[in-house]
Design brief:
alpha/beta; three-stranded mixed beta sheet; 18 helices
């Protein structure tokens, strides 16, 4: 079955989507002359960057003073101070976003807008398929489209299923599902297109639709196979785009659907309790220069076609060729062209899923790592907003800081065993747990510990405050909530060394010219043996580190890191267990996440 326009008697004109010149600035002639200023955005940005800079400077000064008190500061000591400062800044940056999230106020353009006043738009609902379950994915999107067309706003919604599925049996099943939905929902326009050649992956799939069908639509809502949104949320985005002629892209803050495993439920809790406050802070300081997460976003079709055509990067893969993490780049190019890119926290019911266990999460991280490191090549593209450049830098730093953390572990290993002449020996011979830091009346170890605790824990505490203020604990147990927070923090600390080592592994693969982990992951609940094989690198590294501690070669302060790595397999197995009946993490703030629309009842049919 091939793609068809809504009116087969009149083919729509083709919409041009040229490759963007990444060596010259670009402005879309159709873009507005100026954007509506966002109140308080510059004050928010000044606060956001000053806070972590101040805390980082304070920590770096303390470390340098410690080292200088014992004599001249050596190159290893200076290096250690610099790496601590570099790593700490990115940790402390989240604190500023969390503070801003608490003072974020809803946008009246969204909360008080009358849907009946929005000018009608034709909106295309685009579902990207790559071998996912057809009945679940297409059925859920059809339910949403049908609900939108009866919701009562002024817009018209049409569903397109855009498939890049490689398995021909699954592709045939997709066709059968679309045909069945068309019969069961005659009032819902649904069309299907399959590409024989998976050219340029997801961005190529979208680009082909834009050039062949996009001219017939004012806006498009891009959905992944795991996307779930309510009609109210989609309608809010459509109304806002209709009423704001400067809007090029509107991205809600995505949340997670309830999962089954301990890992999924912990991630769901973290995103719901901490992430929503951070997202509101992100919306406040980014203003008209926000970001795009690749799905669940409303995009002005003409602006996307004119501004977001992605060229191939020069050179060979993995850093050359197709731009993999295309969403950040598309947002930056749309903003460069003169359109606004905004986060819309008020569009609350936007959901996705998270990988079911740690190896699947790591596999996804490897793919994202490769794409985000590619962004380092784009930081000097002419015409980009400095905020857009910072988004791409921050995405790359999410992985590059793991190198810094590993370097810190190596440097602290060089401390020695308190009896040898290590490069940095600051431990008492009779008490290896107590460092021999010089004492200063104005600076204490308690202050340094407080700085680190504030940077690591305060964003979570502020996120929890914001969650409670939004009514998240209504009818829930406060004791169970606090227990869930404590367990999440402990597990997050335990898993951090594992993710650090895996990020370094992904970066090493990229440096060696190998793709960063593309391929299928183990679905379902993996066996313990499979998990042990997957985590062999961490297990060996942890065993070696614990062995060095046992023989007195390195400080006992590294035992927590060594234990986390050595027991990566058992920890991963624990997190993969079914936790639906555990009395933790069940704190979804919206009923929409629980009451997912029923998937259309389509009986499996034989593949012809």
């Amino acid at each position: 079955m091939t793609d068809m326009p809504r009116d087969i008697t009149q083919m729509p004109p083709r919409l041009s989507m040229p490759d963007q010149d990444l060596k010259q600035p670009f402005h879309d002639p159709a873009a507005p002359d100026q954007l509506t200023p966002v109140h308080g955005v510059w004050l928010a940005r000044i606060f956001l960057f000053l806070l972590p800079s101040f805390l980082t400077g304070l920590l770096a000064h303390t470390c340098y003073t410690w080292f200088a008190a014992a004599g001249d500061v050596t190159p290893p000591e200076l290096t250690l101070t610099a790496v601590i400062a570099f790593s700490f800044f990115w940790v402390a940056f989240a604190l500023g976003s969390a503070v801003l999230g608490l003072i974020h106020s809803p946008d009246p353009r969204v909360t008080t807008a009358d849907p009946k006043q929005a000018a009608p738009m034709d909106v295309a609902m685009l579902v990207m398929m790559y071998g996912e379950d057809a009945r679940d994915t297409i059925g859920r999107a059809a339910e949403l489209t049908s609900g939108l067309n009866t919701y009562g706003d002024n817009h018209r919604y049409t569903l397109y299923v855009l498939s890049d599925t490689r398995d021909m049996a699954l592709q045939r099943q997709e066709e059968l599902v679309v045909a069945e939905i068309s019969r069961e929902m005659p009032n819902t326009d649904i069309f299907y297109r399959w590409r024989p050649e998976n050219r340029d992956y997801k961005s190529g799939n979208l680009r082909e639709w834009v050039t062949t069908q996009g001219a017939g639509f004012d806006a498009m809502l891009v959905l992944d196979a795991d996307s779930y949104m309510t009609p109210e949320t989609v309608s809010k985005l459509a109304d806002l785009m209709s009423n704001d002629p400067t809007a090029g892209l509107l991205q809600p803050i995505n949340r997670l659907l309830p999962g089954e495993s301990f890992w999924q439920r912990m991630q769901e809790f973290a995103v719901e309790v901490y992430g929503q406050t951070l997202g509101r802070g992100f919306a406040l300081w980014t203003g008209n220069e926000a970001n795009y997460f690749g799905h669940n976003a409303m995009i002005r079709t003409a602006a996307f076609a004119t501004a977001a055509g992605l060229p191939h990067l020069p050179g060979r893969r993995p850093l050359g060729g197709v731009i993999l993490s295309h969403d950040f780049v598309e947002a930056a190019l749309i903003r460069r062209a003169g359109w606004s890119v905004r986060m819309v926290p008020e569009a609350e019911d936007s959901f996705e899923t998270t990988p079911e266990h740690v190896p699947a999460y790591i596999k996804r991280d490897h793919r994202w790592c490769q794409g985000n490191i590619q962004h380092m090549r784009l930081l000097r593209v002419p015409g980009l907003s400095w905020i857009s450049r910072f988004h791409m830098l921050q995405g790359a730093m999410a992985y590059l800081t793991s190198l810094a953390w590993l370097f810190l572990v190596v440097l602290w290993t060089l401390v020695g065993d308190h009896t040898t002449n290590g490069i940095l020996v600051y431990f008492k011979p009779d008490d290896p747990l107590t460092p021999m830091w010089p004492k200063f009346p104005s600076i204490s170890l308690a202050m340094v510990a407080g700085l680190i605790a504030v940077a690591l824990i305060a964003p979570k505490v502020l996120g929890a405050i914001g969650f409670i203020a939004r009514g998240g604990l209504r009818g829930k147990s406060a004791i169970r909530f606090v227990a869930s927070m404590l367990v999440e923090i402990v597990v997050a600390v335990a898993i951090a060394p594992i993710l650090m080592l895996q990020h370094v592994r992904a970066l090493t693969r990229i440096t060696l010219g190998r793709d960063g982990g593309w391929g299928a992951h183990q679905s379902g609940t993996p066996s313990f043996g499979w998990l042990m094989r997957f985590h062999w690198m961490e297990t060996v590294a942890g065993a070696v580190l614990l062995g060095l501690v046992a023989v007195g070669a390195v400080t006992v302060w590294l035992i927590p890191i060594g234990a986390s790595l050595a027991f990566a397999g058992p920890l991963s197995a624990l997190l993969a267990l079914d936790a639906r009946h555990w009395p933790l993490f069940d704190f979804q703030n919206q009923e929409a996440a629980r009451d997912k629309p029923a998937v259309i009842s389509i009986e499996p049919k034989p593949v012809l």
